[in-house]
Amino acid sequence: MKHKEKNLPVIKCSLLKQLQESENVMSKYECSVCGWVYDEEEGFDGGGIAPGTKFEDFAEDWFCPFCSAGKEKFNKLRGT
Ligand SMILES: [Zn+2]
């Protein structure tokens, strides 16, 4: 179940998006072991990772919540 905030003013939303696109581009990282994709824009609710958290900001000993692979097993995906 996704729970997206829909009550933000439109202007604020598009401004935020512009900011992210120009200076702070969100990326996706795929686990090469199990195929799980971490989306920086969405974060990972089950792992307590807030939306917008950069993959590179994860602790060095962080590992995939599904298969326990280390960060080095993740590959950065190109934008949509
Ligand atoms: Zn994995």
Would you kindly provide a brief summary of this structure?
With 80 residues, this protein is of the alpha+beta class.
Q: How would you characterize this protein structure?
A:
Helices cover 18% and strands 14% of the residues. The protein has one helix at 10-23, and strands at residues 28-31, 37-39, 74-77. The chain is built from 1 helix and 3 strands. The two termini are 22 Å apart. It is of the alpha+beta class and 80 residues long. The protein has a domain at 26-77: Single Sheet (Rubrerythrin, domain 2). Bound molecules: zinc ion. Residues 31, 33-34, 36, 64, 66-67, 69 line the site of zinc ion.
Task: Provide key terms for this protein.
three-stranded antiparallel β-sheet; 18% helix; 80 residues; alpha+beta; Rubrerythrin, domain 2; single chain
